[in-house]
Design goal:
Layout lengths: L2 H16 L5 H16 L3 H5 L2 H6 L3 H8 L5 H13 L13 E5 L8 E5 L1 H17 L13 E4 L7 E3 L2 E4 L1 H6 L10 E2 L2 H4 L4 H11 L5 E5 L2 H14 L14 E5 L4 H8 L7 E8 L2 E5 L8 E3 L5 E7 L28 E8 L6 E11 L4 E7 L13 H15 L5 E8 L5 E8 L6 H15 L1 H7 L3 E9 L3 H9 L14 H18 L1
Parallel strand pairs: 1-5, 3-6, 3-7, 7-8, 8-9, 17-18
Antiparallel strand pairs: 1-2, 4-5, 9-10, 10-11, 11-15, 12-13, 13-14, 14-15, 16-17
Helix pairs in contact: 10-11, 13-14, 14-15
């Protein structure tokens, strides 16, 4: 009998009955007031009059009127650069002990995002909420005695003067509570290995020594790790190595594009639980087993705002126009895309995190990530968002019974200057490029009125090129690094796409 597991499960169930969800609107107002109060004597707080905002009759409205939107470049150039030079009390009291390095999905250089002690505590609290939510997922007591494989970035953080730097998954893992360490795999020694391929090799070597019940990490890199373990031990599926695997906590990107190829590695069904941990904070988690959506965490040091995701409010670089309106939490609409803004205990203010989300259940504040602001392809009015692209690719998978875990797209020009969409699909399917292009085009026309109009006018064609799926992580590795928080670009500009095409051709030539 799983005595320890039964005790843990009972404690989680008891916590779930005692701890109730806060009043959402009061919680968010309290979070904003606490943020402003804490930061009112910082350079940023004085510049934007936080003390006056706190005296306003409508604090939330005053905050939106006095503080502009910030993307990373704007906030870093004007404010965070002072922290890098040693200044204190800039956007948050004191100086942060950590900086999260995030190249995200664009560019080779890393962003350096402050991570304060308060943010570490916020992430830890969100993790506890996630564990508590497991009481809703009908898991047997034995599950709570199994190991959890957390495939993030290296926990061997870089020491830079008076602080440490690393990806947020590595920072979080290096600060896990003492009581969790016996569950945490691959363990401290392997987790410190910087080279991703070497780390995965060590995981494969040790895999049979661990009784894994849950996985946690970004789908693309988790899938590659599972394939390596399966190949190393020459088995058919991962359940031959980890028979008690029951849960996968996905995060950072939509899981649906990876679902077919991911589940092909399983020997039996597992529960997929979505989480939303970004470099800027732990924003949402899935608490409802009957939904694929995540509930915003509204009482944990993060204040949320929402901007309608419409072409007239989005600049070419993915930033917001100055006149873009903000929708408060009380007025959001279901099934409508929004650009997400956050203000946090790490000193981000009205910060454009870069993700777009939609509310699937307004009453329970449940959301889904729908894409990235920089992945909005609107050349000649096609208005393609990532969720529309994902849906179309999933339709291809279903129609032809194939797997397409990765893709990327760009708008290119024929010699006469007319535009067409060029897709690269990561798949081993035997279908011709022309057949896939026609089906993809038809799917997008049916699902997106604007795309259909564009295809009848200035958008003159669709081209598909099939490439081996492993090309995509190899591209990420060549441009940034493997694993961790790195995500594949779904949309590229012409210059970046030209680099990608050269890379693909080189890789294919080397494989011949």
């Amino acid at each position: 009998m799983a005595i320890r597991g039964s005790i843990i499960k009972s404690l989680i169930d008891l916590r779930d009955t005692i701890v109730s969800e806060p009043d959402a609107f009061k919680a968010q107002k309290d979070v904003l007031e606490n943020l402003l109060e804490k930061a009112k004597e910082t350079s940023f707080g004085k510049f934007y009059g936080f003390a006056d905002i706190l005296e306003a009759e409508d604090i939330e409205k005053s905050f939106t009127e006095k503080v502009p939107y910030f993307d990373y470049k704007k906030l870093n150039d004007r404010w965070w650069s002072q922290i890098h030079e040693g200044a204190e009390d800039i956007t948050w009291p004191g100086k942060p002990n950590y900086f999260a390095l995030s190249s995200g999905t664009t560019g080779k250089s890393s962003k350096r995002i402050p991570v304060t002690d308060e943010m570490i505590e916020s992430i830890r609290n969100a993790g506890i909420k996630q564990v508590g939510a497991l009481s809703n997922f009908d898991l047997e007591p034995e599950f709570f005695e199994k190991g959890i494989m957390m495939l993030g970035s290296s926990t061997d953080l870089q020491h830079e003067g008076d602080h440490e730097e690393g990806e947020i998954s590595g920072i979080s893992a290096s600060n896990i509570p003492f009581w969790f360490r016996s569950y945490y795999k691959p363990g401290e020694e392997i987790s410190k290995i910087e080279d991703w391929d070497e780390r995965v090799e060590r995981i494969a070597e040790n895999a049979k020594d661990w009784d894994i019940g849950a996985l946690s990490g970004i789908p693309s890199w988790m899938e590659l790790m599972l394939k390596k373990v399966i190949e190393y031990h020459n088995v058919e599926n991962i359940h031959e190595i980890w028979p008690n695997l029951q849960v996968y906590a996905s995060g950072g990107v939509a899981f649906e594009p990876y679902q077919k190829s991911f589940m092909a590695l399983m020997g039996k069904p597992i529960k997929v639980i979505d989480t939303y941990l970004a470099s800027e904070g732990f924003l949402a988690l899935q608490s409802n087993p009957d939904s694929q959506s995540m509930r915003l965490i509204l009482d944990n040091g993060i204040y949320f705002e929402f901007v309608p995701f419409q072409p007239e409010y989005i600049n070419q670089d993915g930033s917001l126009t100055e006149d873009a309106p903000t929708v408060p939490l009380a007025d959001v609409e279901e099934e409508k895309d929004y650009v997400l803004l956050i203000s946090t205990v790490s000193g981000t203010w009205r910060y454009i995190i870069g993700d777009t989300i939609k509310f699937t259940d307004k009453e329970n504040f449940e959301i889904r990530i729908t894409g990235r602001t920089k992945f909005f392809l609107n050349v000649v009015g096609s208005q393609l968002s990532v969720n529309k692209m994902n849906d179309a690719v999933q339709e291809l998978e279903e129609k032809f019974d194939i797997k397409i875990p990765e893709f990327t797209i760009a708008a290119k020009r024929f010699e006469d200057g007319e535009f067409y969409h060029s897709w690269y699909l990561g798949t081993t399917a035997d279908n011709s490029d022309e057949e896939l292009a026609e089906a993809l085009d038809d799917s997008l026309k049916n699902a997106n009125k604007n795309y259909g109009v564009a295809r009848g006018k200035a958008l003159k064609g669709v081209k598909v090129t099939k490439v081996p799926p492993e090309i995509f992580p190899e591209w990420s590795g060549a441009n940034k690094k493997k694993g961790g928080q790195v995500k594949m670009e779904k949309v590229m500009d012409e210059e970046k796409f030209a680099e990608f095409e050269k890379f693909v051709q080189k890789q294919l030539n080397e494989k011949d």
